[in-house]
């Protein structure tokens, strides 16, 4: 009788562990897709020139990503004279003038804070070609990467440019902004899923087991 009971307990433990692992894998995958869709939504707002309360026409929209359990979507409203988008030939007061510096700052307008929940968080990210041309920069230390660590990734969109602008906390350098970025999401069980972004507008979660990290 004790032998049978022991077998039942062992089997129950295995099934419970497997189920918990499956649920975490599913939650992680769903979070990766949710984040990618949120970035895509911000892209649509930016390219459409969405105007919100207190937001000037045609302002860029972006997503600020740090090693955290949430991300911030924002309107790139500061500074009033853009330091990264192409300047209007008609001056800063022209209808097609742009604001912002392609980075989230406390002076920008926060649109939404997206909390992941379920123990999922951003645990690493890398940008290729920013701030140093031809090199990767990452949040976590990595062998063979000469560029210093970065603490955030900013992904911004502004009409009529369909391309993505990718920058880090190291600032925006003309001609040296990110060509592509890789975002790592992790669960409580240390499982990872990755999202790849590039200048051409690709925003895609990678299949389970695939990575875009250098």
Question: How would you characterize the overall build of this protein?
Answer:
The protein is of the alpha+beta class and 214 residues long. The protein has one helix at 2-48, and strands at 61-65, 70-75, 109-115, 121-128, 136-138, 153-158, 161-168, 180-186, 192-198, 203-205. The strands form 2 sheets. A 5-stranded antiparallel sheet has the order 3-2-1-6-7. Strands 5-4-8-9-10 form a 5-stranded antiparallel sheet, with helices on one face. Strand 8 and strand 9 (192-198) form a beta hairpin.
How is the topology of this model organized?
Blueprint: H1 2-48, E1 61-65, E2 70-75, E3 109-115, E4 121-128, E5 136-138, E6 153-158, E7 161-168, E8 180-186, E9 192-198, E10 203-205
Antiparallel strand pairs: 1-2, 1-6, 2-3, 4-5, 4-8, 6-7, 8-9, 9-10
């Amino acid at each position: 009788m004790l032998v049978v009971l022991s077998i039942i307990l062992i089997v129950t433990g295995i099934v419970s562990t497997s189920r918990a692992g499956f649920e975490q894998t599913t939650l992680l995958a769903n979070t990766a897709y949710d984040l990618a869709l949120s970035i895509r939504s911000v892209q649509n707002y930016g390219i459409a020139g969405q105007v919100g309360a207190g937001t000037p026409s045609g302002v860029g929209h972006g997503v600020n990503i740090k090693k955290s359990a949430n991300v911030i979507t924002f309107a790139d409203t500061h500074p009033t004279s853009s330091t990264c988008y192409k300047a209007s030939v008609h001056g800063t007061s022209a209808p097609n003038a742009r604001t912002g510096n392609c980075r989230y700052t406390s002076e920008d307008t926060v649109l939404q804070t997206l909390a992941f929940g379920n123990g999922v968080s951003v645990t690493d990210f890398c940008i290729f070609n920013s701030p140093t041309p031809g090199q990767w920069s990452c949040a976590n230390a990595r062998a063979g990467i000469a560029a210093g660590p970065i603490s955030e990734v900013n992904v911004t969109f502004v009409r009529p440019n369909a391309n993505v602008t990718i920058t880090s906390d190291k600032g925006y350098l003309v001609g040296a902004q990110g060509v592509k970025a890789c975002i790592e999401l992790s669960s409580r069980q240390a499982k990872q899923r990755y999202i790849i972004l590039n200048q051409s507008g690709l925003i895609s979660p990678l299949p389970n087991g695939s990575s875009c990290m250098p």
